[in-house]
Design goal:
Order of helices and strands: EEEEEEEEEEE
Strand content: over 45%
Distance between the termini: 39 Å
Shape: globular
Oligomer: single chain
């Protein structure tokens, strides 16, 4: 099992930026995928972005392409989500999660993410 701790959330005006961090511990991540998933009030969790730890391959939800960037720091066991041009509809709790499955076709499936952090709140005001 992997322990995940997110940070970096907060309140920002529309058009602003935030960088989320997720520190992982408890298990080597070399063969896993790390993802960011978000949940707005009254909605289901939705996939935002993911990065494959071994080769850095990334995937993004269409609604964040060109605005968000996921990256990793192997030495620090940390995954980042740089969020630019934020919109009020980006307001949500953002979770970091680990995916052990190696099936690329299902990388956007929230149900395939096994271990989760506690989440960090991102609020974008208009």
């Amino acid at each position: 099992q992997v322990q995940l701790v997110e940070s970096g959330g907060g309140l920002v005006q529309a058009g602003g930026s935030l960088r989320l961090s997720c520190v992982a511990s408890g298990r080597t991540l070399r063969s896993y995928t790390m993802g960011w998933i978000r949940q707005a009030p009254g909605t289901e969790r939705e996939f935002v972005a993911a990065i494959r730890w071994s080769d850095g391959r990334t995937d993004y939800a269409d609604f964040v392409k060109g605005r968000f960037t996921i990256s990793r720091d192997n030495a620090k066991n940390t995954v980042y989500l740089q969020m630019n041009s934020l919109k009020p509809e980006d307001t949500a709790v953002y979770f970091c999660a680990v995916r052990y499955s190696s099936t690329p076709a299902t990388i956007t499936w929230v149900s395939t993410y096994a271990d989760w952090g506690q989440g960090t709140q991102v609020t974008v005001s208009s």
